[in-house]
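Sequence only, no structure available. Ideas?
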Amino acid sequence: MVTRLFCGSYLFLTLLAGSHAAAARAELVFSDLSFRQGFLLSYPHAARGRAVAATLALGRADARPLWRLCQWGTKYNLADASCVPGPQGDVCYENQGKRVVVGGPDSPRRDLILEIRGQAEYGTRPRRAGESWPHLLIEQDTPRPFRIDALEHLTLSVRLRLLHCTDHMAATDYDPGLHAAQFQMFLIVKNVNPQAKDHGDYFWFGVPFFDNRHDSPRAYMAKDAGKSDATGKFIYTVAAQAVGIRPLKSGQWVDVEANLLPHIKRGLAEAVARGYLEAGNEQDYAVVNMNLGWEIPGTFDAAMQVRDLRISVLAKGD
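Reply:
I predicted one. C-alpha cells follow.
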C-alpha cells in the first residue's frame, strides 16, 4: 500500500511538473493584456477601416497602444469623450452610448470593463432587418502568424463577470432573430501561403461567452451577413458548452480555459465543406487577429468585466 501511494504520488507530481513545463514554454499570442497602453479608436463607420478617430491614451504621455477599440454602428463617438481618472488607478471614457474602464492593478475594476447602452443607441424604435447595430470590442493583430499545423495547443484563458444586462424592449417588438445582446470572441483564421489558391482568404472562428437568448450560447455556422458592411465570410462559432463555458449570471465570475485548436481545425474543414474556402490544408492557415466584446443588435444595456485574458500557443515538439 505504501508503495502504491508513493508511485501514485510520484506519477501525479511528474504529470504536474510536465504541465508546468509546457505552460512555461507556451508563447503568448497577444500583448498588453492589462490594457495599460490604451487604445486606437475606430470610427463609428466600419467603412473607414483601420483609420484612427482618436487615441485613448489613458492620460499617459508615453502610451503605445497595441489594441484597437472598435465602436462600429454607434451614434455616439467616443473620440469626443474625456479621459476621467478614478479611484485606485482606474481610467474611464464615457458618453451616452458606452463606457470603457481600464482598472488599476489593485482595483476591483481591473482589467477592463466594456459597457454598451442600447437604449440610448436605439431610443424607442427597435432595430429593423438590414440595419447596422452598435459594437464595442477590442481588437489586436498577432505579431506573426501562428500556423495551425505547427501547434500542439492554442489555449484561451480568461475570467469574465457579467455586471448587468437589461432588456428595454417590449415583448411585442422583440424578435430573437433580429434582437440580442452578445459578448463573444472571434479569431481570424487566414490563408497565409502566397502560393495557395485561397491566399488571403479567411474565416471567423467564434467563442460565445454570453447571449441573452440562451443560458448557454449555441453553435452557429453561417455567412457573415445582416448589414451592409458584413464581410460575407464564413462564421464558425463553437457551442459554449463545447469549450467549458458556464452560464454567465449577473455579478458572478466565470473562469474559462480551453484548448481551441481542435475546434479551429473543425471550423476550417467546415468552411471547405460549405464552399467558402477551396482547400483546407492546415499548413496554409494561421491565426492572425482576434477581437473580443459586445455586439448589441437589440435594445439592451449591458456591461462585462474582463480579467486575466491570455491566448497562448504551444508549438509541436516544444
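The chain is about 15% helix and 40% strand.
Hope that gets you unstuck.
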